[in-house]
Every structure is written in structure tokens, then in C-alpha cells.
Write a structure and sequence with these properties.
The structure is a single chain. This protein is α/β, with parallel strands linked by helices. The protein folds into two domains: 178 residues, NAD(P)-binding Rossmann-like Domain (Rossmann fold, 3-Layer(aba) Sandwich); 281 residues, Dihydrodipicolinate Reductase, domain 2 (2-Layer Sandwich). 35% of the residues lie in helices and 20% in strands. The longest helix is centred in the C-terminal third of the chain and has 20 residues. The chain is globular, with a radius of gyration of 24 Å.
Length: 505
Amino acid sequence: MTQTLTISKIRPAPPCTIVILGASGDLARRKLLPALYNLRACGQGLMAPETTVLGFARRAMTPDEFRTAARDGVKRYSRLKLDECCWSEFAKHLDYLGGLDEPDGFKVLRRRLEEIEAARKLPPNRIFYFSIPPQALRDTIERLSAAGLVGPAEGENFSRLVIEKPIGHDLKSALEINHTLHQHCAEQQIFRIDHYLGKETVQNMMVLRFANSIFERVWGTRNVDHVQITVAEDEGLGTRAAYYDQAGALRDMVQNHMLQLLAMIAMEPPVSLDATAVRNAKLDAIRSLRPIAHEQVRAMAVRARYAGGVIDGHPVRGYLEEQGVPPDSRTETYVALKCFIDNWRWSGVPFYLRTGKRLARRSSAIYVQFKDVPAILFNRDGRLTPDVLTLRIQPDEGFSFDVLAKEPGLDLAIRQVGMNLSYEREFSDPSPDAYERLLLDMMIGDHTLFISGEFVRLSWQFLQPILDQWRDDPAIPMEVYPAGGWGPDGGEALIKADGRKWRNP
């Protein structure tokens, strides 16, 4: 019989008020409100029943209209079927306030919070979730603080600020945002969220590595040939043209999601499961990234944008034809990058990262490819395929280990077979959405799955030479790739130059 060893259990969160700044937007409707409903509806008592969600945005809306919009979001996007009894209880603790952009908006917010807390006998524990455009972040933090809504870090009750990516547009702006945050609150009050860190496969990386001796003993330069990290999207811009054309793939995906995944794969064992220890171990990995000099950018990084093509049998437009994209845009929708981690464990092992929109399918995965066996015995002609550990982040969360085995029969025929784990097939309970885990952690005050200010600084510092060179050197090409494929020729050439090839999901 298989036994489950529970190392730690999630504890119930204390009662609080969660203020969603920008609550009339897509993030609140698609992710935040469904996740909060699921925490209330799952029946585990993790979210205090008196916890209140207060939407705060520019748009004028009555609380009942907000509840109607929230119900539609839960019905359409929640992993749990909407239950009328659960919804009724959840809706009682939903409120809304317009006027975020008004001069006295945050003073009105403070009065409304005090009224809610008095009426519902809630302690003044407050979480402010910044679901707002990045360019409004610094001003909103200052207005929130000026209204007296950010309490001391060591007070009896807590004030917490939750910041969505992207944090900054480059190194300079990221440092300015961190400086603004630290002017008004302590680092332990800041929760920089990357929803990838809430995914089950990402959380399972530490267990896979540090609870299984077989992997940790072969993890590094002696046995690993290279590592690939792919985050592929089949969708285009949707309604995000205004944001995306100012960001691009390097800022939107590599600076946060992909460098976080790299750190999880490359980090040394933390000294404990304490949030500070785990985050320090990831920081050490990022600190060890070999800097990319300006003159190396063309050899180490590829950029491209998608042209028209066909996905799932349907024609799709190219990036420059998307609504809201200027015809002279120089924004990349694809990035391929080669980097190295200069420490004892990973010396000489290349890490290949690629991400793009309008690729063949939606898939995020990490491939750890092990070195070839010697050219003797079964591999005299060098044709044996190497062993590969695949960590599937989405859509089919799980992992597989591909090894070689003899096919049944009289001939000695060898082929690759996979030892495969799918979370959906192996575990009967559905996995919680990433935002459920992260929202619960911020209510509890656990920083383990959140990004530190130092990680933000180091990630931008690593990528800044690429951004600078792409801006300053017109000779660096912006390649074009057809929608529905796996990216441009330059992306293939980047890895083929080292005698390797991309593994397509």
C-alpha cells in the first residue's frame, strides 16, 4: 500500500479584507475572484468565513453589479462548478467601490474599509492586490500610503501589498519601483506574484530533486548534457496589444517566469523549507548566471515575431496585422536564449530557453537531457538516444523519464520508453489553481512562492545587455516565423550550432 508522508499542512488563514485594485479588469474576473470562491467553496476551512473582498477600480459600479460580474467570472472560469449555497455565502462578503482615479479616492477607500471592519467585526488585516497597469504602480503605492492604509510591518495587524508582474520595464525602472515600495513598507509586507510558481509541477520540482536520491546524485555537469526550458503559446495577443507591444517576449516571459523556472532547476538544496532559505537558494542560482556581454548578444539570443499562418486548421493574422499593433513595431513575440550557470554544479552545461506566441501548441516544459553513454557496447555507432527527464508544467501536468529498453522479440532492438506520471491520472483530487495557492499563502503570510526584490534586480541585470543591444544595433535581425510552427530558423540554428536540437512537446 502506498503511503502519503505529510511534511507540513496548510494552516487556515486569519480573517482579513482583500482589496483588489483594478477589480473591474480581466485578471480579477478570470483568476482572482474564481480562485477566492474556490478557497471558500472547497470545504477545508482555509479562508476565514468573515474574510471580505472589496473591489476598488475607476469604473462606477454598484456592489450588486460587481457581484453579478463576479458570479459570471466564477461560473465561466472556476475549476469548481458554481454551487448556489456556496455562492450565496461568498457573495455576502463581496463589496465594491469606484473612484480609484479620483483625488480623494484612497481616503474614501479608507473610510469604507473602516466601515466594513466595524460592521463585520473584522480585524484591520488588509491585503492590497495591485491588478492595475504597470505604469500606474508607483503612483498608486504612494497614494495608498498617503491615505494611511499601509500599517507598520511589526504591528498587531498586517498590511500586505501584492504586486503582479511585470515589475519594471528594464533594470532602471525596476529599481525605481523597488525603491518606492521600500519607502512605504518593509520587504516582508511585499508579495511579488508569479503565477507559474503556484503550479503543481513547479512546486513538485523541489520534491523531485531533494526527496529522491536518484536525481540529486546525477544533477549537474558530470551527468547532464544540457537543459531546455520551453514556454510555448498558441494564442496571439487577444486584447493585450497595448501592454504587449510595450513589453515583448523577453520582458513578458523570460524576465520572470522562465528565470524562475531556471532557478528552481539549478538551485542548491536550501538549508530548510523556510521561505527565506528557499528564496536565498534561488538567488544564488541567478547570481551565478554568466553575464552576457553586448558583443555576445547576437550569438546568445534570437528574437522574432510571428507572421500569418494556420493553427488548428484556422488561418490567423500576423503580429503586425493584430489590432492595436503599430505597423512599425519592433516588438518580439519569440525569444531563444542560451545561458550558462558558472558554479561548481553546472559549470559548462548550457541552458536553452525559448518562448513564443502563435507556436504549434500551448505547452510549457523543462527537459533535462543526460549525457550520451560511451561509444561502446550498444552505442558503438553513436546512434542511441540519450535519457531525458521531462517536467510538464502545462497543460498535462506531470513528469516522465525516458530511458532505453529492449523491445520484445528475438532481435536485439532498442527503443526509448517513457516512465510517465500524470497528475490527473495518478491523483484523484483535482489540483488547485495556481492563484488559489498563492492567494492563500499571501493571507497566511508565507513568502516561499513569491519573488524577492533582489531576484527582480538580478533578473533585469542579466537581461539588460540584451535589451540594450536590441535597441541600439539595427543590424540584429528581427526574424519572422509563420504562425503554427515552432519558431524562426535562427532559434533552430542557436541550438544546432552546439550539435543539439529542440525537443518539441
